[in-house]
Amino acid sequence: MKINHVIKHFKTKAELARVLKIEPSAVSHWVKKDEIPAKRQLQIQKITKGKLKAGL
After folding, report:
1. Residue 52: inside a domain, yes or no?
2. pLDDT 10s digits, 33-51
3. Of all residues in the chain, what percent carry a pLDDT higher than 90?
4. Per the domain annotation, does 29 fall within a domain?
């Protein structure tokens, strides 16, 4: 799962953070590292009903 695809799906980093109930700074950290933690990937997959797949 690529962070740029996830942000595109949710439109903004702020919206992604809101949906995941995390601080926007966490999303910014993922962008800098170009990596989404596995736990969050699974959460995103569930929220998007499989439209975005976790790449574990």
Report:
1. no
2. 999 999 999 999 999 999 9
3. 98
4. yes
